[in-house]
Amino acid sequence: MYVVINELHVPKEGREAVAGRFGESAEKMKNTPGCLDFMFLNPEDESNYQLVYTKWESKEAYEAWLNSDQFKAAHKKRRAESKEDTASGNQLYTYEAVHHL
Question: Is residue 61 part of a domain?
């Protein structure tokens, strides 16, 4: 199992818009081959970080999604959004699951 956490750096005023866009993505991820779980996480505090958590059958399944037309279309649309409603940066964390319940 492969886990990817994308830490999005989002100004407070843009959080709602970013969360809305990822809500649309969540529905599409249900039909993505190899995707086992998708969560979009809002912080409880005032930090500027929202997290996208995905769990995959394998690293290969994740990489296939990265190279898919679905991924490219979603990120092309994002680039067309206003700067206030997007992440100002991100940090990607990837993990191979060693133990899982």
Answer: no
